[in-house]
Amino acid sequence: MVRRGRIAGALAVATTVTLLAGLLYAQSTERAKQIGANLVCMCGCAQILTACNHVGCTMSSTMLKQLDQRVDGNSSDDLLLQSFVQEYGPKVLASPPAQGFNLLAWMIPGLAFAMGLAVVLAVIRQWRRRFELAPAGGPPISSEALERARRQADRETED
Amino acid sequence: MDLFGSFSLLLAFLCALYAIGGGIAAVRTRRPLLIKSARNAGFAVCVLIWLAMGSLAYLFLSDNFSISYVVAHSNRTLPGYLKISAIWAGQEGSLLFWSFILSIYVFSALFTYRGKHPELMPYVGVVMAGVQLFFLAINTFAASPFAVLGTAGAGGALDVIAPADGRGLNPLLQYPEMVIHPPMLYSGYTGFTIPFAFALAALLGRYPGEKWIHLTRRWTMIAWCFQSIGVLLGAHWAYAVLGWGGYWAWDPVENASLMPWLTGTAFLHSVMMQEKRGMMRVWNVWLVFATFLLTIFGTTLTRTGLVSSVHAFAQSTIGPWFFSFIGLVLVVCFTAYWRNRDYLRSDNQLDSLASRESSFLFNNLILLVACVAVLSGTLFPVLSEWVQGTQISVGAPFFNKVNLPIGLFLLFLTGVGPLLAWRKTSMESLKRNFGWPLLLGMVAGGAGVALGLRNFYVTICLSLCVFVTLTILLEFYRGARVISARSGANIFSSVARLTMRNTRRYGGYIVHFGIVLIFVGISGSAFNQDKQMDMPPGAQMEIGPYRLVHQTFDSVPSVNYTSERATIAVDRDGQQSIMLYPERRFYPSNEESGTMVAIYSTLKEDLYVVYAGRSPETQAPVIHAYLNPLVKWVWLGGLVVVLGTILALVPNRQPVLALRAVAETVPAGPSPARLPMEQPLQQNQQDESRG
User: Fold this and answer.
1) Shortest CB distance from B349 goes to which of A104, A127, A158?
2) From CA A10, how far away is CA B460, in angstroms rounded?
């Protein structure tokens, strides 16, 4: 009974190791793809490394092999990317690192939105104030003015 | 024929100069003869450009290899339709092609408004001729497509050299879509010149009211429609030819085509504020200026190599011409604005935050932020090099991260905006219009999560797509139900009647639905899969539900190229469905190669198979297969956008039934009851026909 239990335990461990090995391998490949999607092929085509397929490219296959080798080495993603930066320069990164001057690239859209929103809100406030200040009553309206207003209302409510 | 072409260009240049000079004199003196003379010079410019274009086409079709440009972009075995597309394959020809498309617009505008709007048209003529003059100047003095190949002979005479054959067309351009993609995109780019010319002319001439807006509405929509087609065809070409598995890489040239589209879209929305309420006059004028400047900037990016791009087919040293022109246009626009800014003063007032007006403000804000994000990302490598001295890349991961939330917010506004009333929307109306769509959109998102959807953006996108689609459907249904109740017609014919009564509004809804479909397609890219392996004949690969079996691998000779082609049988869930033939073509004329992707496309997914060359180790063919879900929805969405725009261009049909009913109740004489109904309609139709 004890022996049978030991065999079952060994089988379970073996199965787990096998499954994990398969899982690790799969993760490694998927990880290489994910990291490769953050790198640029350095042949000058400016395409993403994993997407570069243009005919006669001499760089992408070398870089992809390097990536596979480094992914097998179990370094962290940041270290892996840094190893490419050291070898090829900062241009190898597909997006600018969010630090130093490059942080500006990430901030511009947000700043544009914040500034635009402030302008829109200020404009709305000003327009609303004009509406609130519009005087009530006033002189009698002529039939031409009334007709013009009707036409305007028709136009404005058309769609 | 080359001399004829050169002479036509030179004469067109001189006529454009006269059209500007005569136009300015006409504006100052108001003499009818001068106005007519300047306009006729404008016509002459167009006709002369057509003659030059015809000459270049003839030189290509007759294989005249004494012309440097023909040698560089064509060869004898190139099929005839590709010889036509070779006209715009390089710098010189594409500039002439730009002038050619622009001249069609200019001729149409001059012809449509001949004898009309005498206070406005001389200014318009001057602005249009100014833009034409710029392109003609480049084609005449810096980049002539008619330059002859030759060497200096005895006595300084030119000895013409004519090689036996040309170097052929870039393989990436040897694809049927390339025959229509550049014309469409150029029609978009150049089309925005017309609203620009009218806006600047109205400002310079202080043309009263919103007339220029009415006059240019259709021109703007036509240009926008072409720009949309051009952008989508470009994406489709990238998908089918470049072979990297996707359709949008945020390449600088792709971005260049997207930016004027974004500002043009903002203009098409905000212009309604000016039409209906006389609001946002300054904003609209600057949006038109920005759109025009972005079209010029777009072509500058393509041609100057300012940023590196896989699409830059026509790089050269004409950058200073373009930058000077952009600078000059900016100065003219700003001066015109500053001197006439009081003319643009509008009496803006807003009744409520929950109104169509404020939704347009937010819509414009988001579109402009998207444009800024794309522009800053595109130019940031240049800025970084100037400031830091180091080159960096700004690629797809950056643009995707930045633009995804912007795009989703825009999608939300697509659903909200049209259902808000002008001036003020009541709480009751908000509940009625948005209650069910909002609820069902949330249910759809929840159902997606319950079914295993774990991508945040895709879940939000799904909810928003359902929400926007329902708001659009409800809007059609409500309108059609009223017509159906009145006329007794069934709901489908009522929808048709409703649409034709207000084509602009309902065409706009259809465009919005097309955008929803495009978003559905884009969301599919979150689930892309790919697999690459060496596949000698007999080898198999599985990806998703498909099993690919490499059957044969052969070399196929053709007139203009030889290709290595893999024949791949594809089974889906065990049942053979199709054969795919991915290939790589070698063009001996220029010793270049190109990929031809094989795509099996369904509404659910695309199986996208690339023959990626031979393995260096085993010499076996390498097959790269992608499974791209929902891509077809992007193209379908594009088609719906175009159909919606075309519908919006159709004039409204009068509600005949209602008028007839009124007429029948009052049998004799001119009915006073009809006048109030008909007058606005007639007025509107006159405005429409002017546009």
Assistant:
1) A127
2) 47
Element (H, E) at B373: helix B356-388
DSSP B221-236: HHHHHHHHHHHHHHHH
Per-residue confidence (pLDDT) for residue B633, from 0 to 100? 97
Residues 582-601 of B with CB under 8 A from A: 584, 592-595
- Among all residues of chain B, which has the CA nearest to that of A120? B361
Residues of B in contact with A150 (CB under 8 A): 676
Higher pLDDT, A132 or B398: B398
Residues B539 and B570 placed together within one structural domain of the fold = yes
How many domains does one find in chain B? 4
- What pLDDT score does B515 carry? 96
| Confidence at residue B551, expressed as pLDDT on a 0 to 100 scale | 92
ipTM score here? 0.81
Q: Over the stretch A58-94, which tens digit does the pLDDT of each residue have?
A: 788 888 888 888 887 777 888 999 999 999 999 999 9
- Provide the pLDDT for residue A72: 77
B374 and B264 in one domain?
Answer: yes
- Residue range of the domain that includes B480: 426-501
B53 and B30 Cβ atoms separated by less than 8 Å: no
What is the model's pLDDT at position B232? 96
Confidence label for A135 from pLDDT (cuts 50, 70 and 90)? low
In the block, tokens 């017509």 appear at B483
Q: Which domains does chain A have, with CATH numbers?
A: 2-94 (1.10.8), 103-156 (no CATH)
Phi first, then psi, for residue B446 (nearest 5°) are -60, -40
The more confidently predicted of residues B329 and A7 is B329
Q: Nearest CA of chain B to the CA of A113: how many Å? A: 6
Strand-pair category, B546-557 with B575-580: unpaired
Residues 6+ apart with CB under 8 A from A147: none
Instruction: Determine, for residues A46 and B376 on separate chains, whether the beta-carbon distance falls below 8 Å.
Output: no
Higher pLDDT, A18 or B410: B410
By 3-state DSSP, what share of chain B in percent is helix, strand and coil, each rounded to 5? 65, 10, 25
Question: Low-confidence residues of chain B, pLDDT below 50?
Answer: 656-691
Q: What amino acid is encoded at B69 in this protein?
A: Y
Q: What is the 3-state secondary structure (H, E, C) of chain A?
A: CHHHHHHHHHHHHHHHHHHHHHHHHHHHHHHHHHHHCCEECCCCCCCEHHHCCCCCCCCHHHHHHHHHHHHHCCCCHHHHHHHHHHHHCHHHECCCCCCHHHHHHHHHHHHHHHHHHHHHHHHHHHHHHHHHHCCCCCCCCCHHHHHHHHHHHHHHCCC
Using a CB–CB cutoff of 8 Å, tell me whether B473 touches chain A: no
* Percent of residues, chain A, with pLDDT higher than 90: 21
Residues B73 and B204 grouped into a single domain:
no
With beta carbons less than 8 A apart as the criterion, state whether B544 and B259 touch.
no
Please check the confidence at residue A110 and state whether its pLDDT lies above 80. Answer: yes
Cα A121–chain centre separation: 28
Angle at the Cα of B175 (from B225 to B311), degrees rounded to 5? 70
**The model's pTM:** 0.86
